[in-house]
């Protein structure tokens, strides 16, 4: 009878009850920006409100674990990024398996990364930054959002390419980190364009390089690291949506249908493009596609992380 009752409930899902979307980083940051944009449009398709709840810490794993442990009634979901795929290699006591302990809803958007510096940092070009870092590594601080964050992963790739370890300063998200970068309290940061587009355009921070193989369309004037003598850095931050394990399939399907409509929404696609990001095609906003993607990304990044010899716990 309970199953029947829930099945009926699933048909009426979500009704007028708001849905909580956990964002595992501080408000105002790049993940939060993607989350608020997609939540607004999905809410319209679902005739309800999706409320963002920021739960930062430990590179996104605290917020992710919160959703793993949440009620599987469809009223708590998770919006997270590539950190879902790097955490298994970084956290030996992660406490959950992304592929088994969550329901996949679908992907949302891809976001490129830039290497940024405070205006106070003497090198004004990437070419001058490289020797400067080698000489001053012990006193150069590199901000990130904790082990397992996108900024941490990009920082790992940068330090491996430089063969130089910098002083890491962790934050609960790259929004607070950006404040310190602008204030000169921290020297460098790899961050997603969705967070720094305004500051890069206004010149409030220095942008040294695009951290991928080709220049970023919305930031064509920023050369890639490879173009400036540091090849091999290629990182793109994909964002996706999940629900607690056991969330009824009709509910997951409704969430995914609303997500597919939202990523196809011209307003969402334009907003992402304006911020240097790219909404995924609806075919990637499905549970089956996300399951394959997460598995592939775990396989891709685990050896890179193990080679770097970095663990969070
Ligand atoms: C954020 O939203 O603060 C970022 O995703 C943090 C990060 O992963 O670097």
UniProtKB/TrEMBL annotation:
List the keywords (alphabetical): Signal
Pfam family of this protein, just one? Answer: TctC
Spell out the protein name for this chain: Tripartite tricarboxylate transporter substrate binding protein BugD
- State the organism named in the record: Ramlibacter pallidus
Q: Which family does it belong to?
A: Belongs to the UPF0065 (bug) family.
Domain of life of the native organism: Bacteria
**Matching InterPro entries:** BUG, Bug_dom1
């Amino acid at each position: 009878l309970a199953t029947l009752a829930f099945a009926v409930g699933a048909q009426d899902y979500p009704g007028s009850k708001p849905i909580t979307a956990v964002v595992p980083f501080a408000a105002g940051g790049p993940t939060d920006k993607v989350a608020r944009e997609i939540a607004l449009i999905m809410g319209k398709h679902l005739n309800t409100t999706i409320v963002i709840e920021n739960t930062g810490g430990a590179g996104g794993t605290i917020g992710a674990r919160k959703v793993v442990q949440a009620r599987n009634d469809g009223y708590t979901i998770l919006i997270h990024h590539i950190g879902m795929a790097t955490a298994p290699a970084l956290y030996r006591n992660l406490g959950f398996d992304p592929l088994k302990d969550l329901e996949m809803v679908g992907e949302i958007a891809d976001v490129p990364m830039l290497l940024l510096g405070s205006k106070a940092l003497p090198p004004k070009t990437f070419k001058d930054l490289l020797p400067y870092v080698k000489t001053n590594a012990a006193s150069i601080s590199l901000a990130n959002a904790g082990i397992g964050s996108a900024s941490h992963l990009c920082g790992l790739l940068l330090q491996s390419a430089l063969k130089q370890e910098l002083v890491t300063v962790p934050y609960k998200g790259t929004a607070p980190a950006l404040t310190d970068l602008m204030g000169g309290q921290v020297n460098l940061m790899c961050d997603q364009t969705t967070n720094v587009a305004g500051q890069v355009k206004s010149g409030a921070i220095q942008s040294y390089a695009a951290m991928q193989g080709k220049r970023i369309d919305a930031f064509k004037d920023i050369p890639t690291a490879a173009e400036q003598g540091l090849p091999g850095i290629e990182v793109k931050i994909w964002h996706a949506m999940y629900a607690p394990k056991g969330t009824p399939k009709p509910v997951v399907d409704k969430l995914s249908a609303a997500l597919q409509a939202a990523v196809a929404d011209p307003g969402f696609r334009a907003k992402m493009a304006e911020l240097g990001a790219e909404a995924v095609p609806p075919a990637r906003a499905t549970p089956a596609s996300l399951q394959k993607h997460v598995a592939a990304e775990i396989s891709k990044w685990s050896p890179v992380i193990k080679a770097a010899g970095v663990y969070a716990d």
